[in-house]
């Protein structure tokens, strides 16, 4: 992980399929899908090109509320977001903010530790599954 707080996992699938899988897995886990943004389609609307890039915004009040109760400005980074994108070599990546980095960014205290740990574990699980990590 770079110092920018981002975690990137290579996906075995296209950008669209990666986001489809993530949305399905998140929904099955009881999370809410708030928005799906196709940045490449937006670029196309203005006559610009952009490699496939899609953002999924998802989460659940049970995870984010404790963080905002601790430091309300944490809400700028909530709900959780994941970006599927294709690099210049045709590889697809699924990237998201590291939960510990978010805790440090917002100065979250000990009261938020459990929620941060749960978000970190949950993200690792859904991201890995959506990207096909560890699957044959």
How does this structure look, described?
- This protein is α+β, with helices and mostly antiparallel strands.
- The protein has one domain (6-131): 2-Layer Sandwich (TATA-Binding Protein), CATH 3.30.310.
- Helices cover 43% and strands 24% of the residues.
- The chain contains 5 helices and 5 strands; from the N terminus they run E-H-E-H-E-H-E-E-H-H.
- It has helices at residues 15-28, 39-45, 61-70, 99-106, 113-131; strands at residues 6-11, 32-38, 53-59, 80-86, 92-97.
- It has a 5-stranded antiparallel beta sheet.
- A hairpin with a 5-residue loop joins strand 4 and strand 5 (92-97).
- Helix 1 packs across helix 5 (113-131), helix 3 packs across helix 5 and helix 4 packs antiparallel against helix 5 (113-131).
- The longest helix has 19 residues, at 113-131.
- It is globular.
- It starts with 5 loop residues before the first strand and ends in a 5-residue tail after the last helix.
- The model has no long low-confidence stretch (mean pLDDT 95).
């Amino acid at each position: 992980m770079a110092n920018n707080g981002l975690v990137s996992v290579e996906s075995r699938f296209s950008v669209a399929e990666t986001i489809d899988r993530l949305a399905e897995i998140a929904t099955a886990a009881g999370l809410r899908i708030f928005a799906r943004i196709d940045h490449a389609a937006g670029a196309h609307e203005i006559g610009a090109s952009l490699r496939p890039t899609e953002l999924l915004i998802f989460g659940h009040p049970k995870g984010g509320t404790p963080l905002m109760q601790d430091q309300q400005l944490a809400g700028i980074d909530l709900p959780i977001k994941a970006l599927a994108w294709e690099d210049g070599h045709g590889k697809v990546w699924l990237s998201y903010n590291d939960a510990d980095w978010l805790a440090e960014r917002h100065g979250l205290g000990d009261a938020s530790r459990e929620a941060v740990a749960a978000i970190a574990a949950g993200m690792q699980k859904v991201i890995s599954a959506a990207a096909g990590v560890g699957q044959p």
